[in-house]
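**Protein of interest**
===
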Amino acid sequence: MPAQELTCKELVEVVTDYLEGRMPPDRRLLFEEHLAFCSWCVTYVEQMRATIRVAGTLREVDLDPAVRDSMLRIFRDWKEA
């Protein structure tokens, strides 16, 4: 039996699929219904859109080498966890 509503936790887990247009229509409907009633999740989706927009303008040369190394270490450690 398909879920009749999406929780905030579930929305956060699938936001990338939503923003990239990869979400099946029935799940997209549940996602958008949730947004109609949850201002916290609306804010979250707006923040994700802003993050994607800003990150898309960032170039490797814009990063301080120490910041770059720190970020690479964090991602490397995350994949191993």
